[in-house]
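Z., the sequence and structure:
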Amino acid sequence: MVPFAGWDMPVEYSGITAEHMAVRTRAGVFDVSHMGEIEIAGKDALKAVQRIACSDPSVLEVGQAHLAGLLTPDGTFLDDMLVYRMGPSHFMLVVNASNAAKDYAWIVEQVKAVSDAAVVDSSSRYALIAVQGPAAIDVVQPLTGVPLADIKYYWFAHGEVAGARATISRTGYTGEDGFEIFVPPNVAERVWDAILESGRSVDIVPAGLGARDTLRLEASMRLYGNDMDESTTALEAGLGWMVGWTNEQFIGRDALKKQKDAGVTKKLVGFEMIDRGIGRHGYQVVRDGRPVGVVTSGTQTPFLKKAIGMAYVPIDASRPGSEIEIDVRGRALKARVVPMPFYKRG
């Protein structure tokens, strides 16, 4: 257990490798109640969300979600978030725990420019349990009357899970199929226990922060504070696909458009180690003995059994197949730029 953003969080239960492999091959369950939830409602809710989200929330139907960035005027990341359209004039933003208070204060300030929209930090109203893995649907379906197969990826439905009022979202942070289940905190323990009992037939395991990190890295999912922050833009982070250029209102659009027209000078890439070693967060990418970039995430992955990572490199070193060097404890070790994601489920 470790302190994390004001929470006491499990790094591992039975071991990071065992938990990682369970999610890749069967199912794992994560308590991610530390995530923050911010709701925006009112006649001008859409206008408010269009101002703060770099996507175009107008394309969302009720019951649909997508990933977006919360950007500064410079186009850099305050946070990344999931935007849920709960109703025609009601949205929920799921943000990172370490940024929840900062995000809420920023959003409240920006939404002042919109006349009829209320912002509420509703984090205390939700516990969040994620069931992830190829057998996730077999674990959750016996606990709910909601036909889970009918929920498309990045859509959600309302119903009950283990007798508790729930929102069931077909989303996750592991690269596997699965569901994130929002329930009231007072019933979270009961729902957790019911999931473990239902999952006994597939040997489901509880999984902690360690496996969550190695799983998301294999799937090339960015982590705020590592792979993007207030010094990097959506285009540099390889997340241009989340930018809704049809939304002309969002904060940071002008800066991103200017960068898009000029071209980026650095880019986040995936790499595999050639030499024996692991390029970890904070290690320098070097060229001719001089630092030219930095590793943002890196590990030896349990499923792929490779030393992989992500790093910011100059644009002329960003093409797949390019060789780079990483300073690993004073040794310049060779690595190769490879396409992302490293892992993609069948």
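The chain has seven helices and 19 strands. Residues 173 and 216 are 6 Å apart (CA to CA).

Let me know what you think.
H.
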